[in-house]
Amino acid sequence: MALDLTFIRSQFPAFSEPTLEGWAFFENAGGSYPCHQVVDRLNNFYTKNKVQVNYPYPASTLAGKLMNNSYKRMADFLNVDESEIHFGPSTTQNIYVLANAMRPMWENGDEIIVSCQDHEANAGAWRRLAERGIKINEWHVDPQNGLLSMVELKKLFTNRTKMVAFPHCSNIIGQINPVKEITDLAHKNGALSVIDGVGFAPHGFPDLKDLNADIYLFSLYKTFGTHLGLMYVKDELIKKMENQSHFFKVGNTRSMLTPAGPDHAQIAAASGILDYFDAVYNHHFKIEIKPFQKMKALNDLFFSHENKLLEKLLAFLRSRDDLRIIGSESSENRAPIVSFIPKNRDIKKVYSDLIDHKLMLGLGNFYAFRPLMDMQIPTDPGVIRISFVHYTSNEEIEQLIKGLKAAL
Hints:
- This protein has 408 residues and is α/β, with parallel strands linked by helices.
- The protein has two domains: 5-34 and 291-407, Alpha-Beta Complex (Aspartate Aminotransferase, domain 1), CATH 3.90.1150.10; 41-273, Aspartate Aminotransferase, domain 2, CATH 3.40.640.10.
- Helices cover 39% and strands 14% of the residues.
- It has helices spanning 5-10, 36-48, 58-78, 91-102, 124-127, 150-156, 179-188, 208-211, 235-238, 264-284, 291-318, 347-356, 369-374, 394-407, and strands spanning 24-25, 85-88, 111-115, 135-139, 161-167, 192-196, 215-219, 229-233, 323-326, 337-342, 359-360, 362-364, 383-387.
- The strands form three sheets. It has a seven-stranded mixed sheet, sandwiched between helices. It has a four-stranded antiparallel sheet with strand order 9-10-13-12, covered by helices on one side.
- Strand 3, helix 5 and strand 4 form a beta-alpha-beta unit.
- The model has no long low-confidence stretch (mean pLDDT 97).
């Protein structure tokens, strides 16, 4: 079954916004367009329910129910328990809180493995634990292609390894890592698996029970929602962590990892993402199944559409000898996140020319300092990044290729 792109794009206000007409959006790894279901829920909450929640008057009671609904539905789509879902202001801040909550679980001299392929969100806070008695073992990327090696990972484990932190998919290289294999290896060595899913989740929510990760994190503003970070933490693990909220919140696992308290409206609006997924599923399929099974069906639809566009783009880029593709030149095990460096023209001039062709894309390091450093690519000016999701059209890819031909 092919993705009905007309239906998909009708769910996003941006595609009927006059000020965006003619512009092709290729900076989705930095933040996606929100679907109208999220916008509607956010507007309704601010209009009707912007009061303190869970008091016994209608506006407050409904506000609490709307928030609880987001926890429950998000858990159902990710195939976990709602007690294991946590919302925070961003993935970076969520990991900062996690690092502080988990440090008391370990002894001085214990070790953690942190990949050098990560966005700094899943790198910086863990590395700072070196100042607090934890040894950091660096899992470097291949200097030529930026990929992570399982052979190199196996060399890093010791009898004191407590955790492995790595991305499901790099936000600059695009390669999809073998999450289950890495997680299994970590568990066999008595270590936790902590996965940054920020780059991967926009292309389909994973089945977290199947992945068996201990912690999985991603950003809702990159998955068609509001500016929140979502983290999944196994229930038995959070009970071992140190409370990061008010002293009287000890034992209340929903509160222990949100020091400043929840953002009521944005959490309530998060359910709009799942309204969107339901609408897309119901438009394409007739069989009623569980939410995480719906997600699998949608992921297949999204992947098929994205991969066709990705192969078309990569075929063009491979045909050029005046640029360097960062990472693999194949679409296999690759998300539609493609970074490149021009060889013959100034990168800032190329980028400026692309903007003139009404192409919205990124230039910089995207907080992926460490993979660029490993590959000896200057973090300033960095790379040009092209990133898209399932609402991207073939016509927009054609517009991109035309712009690239002119800019290069």
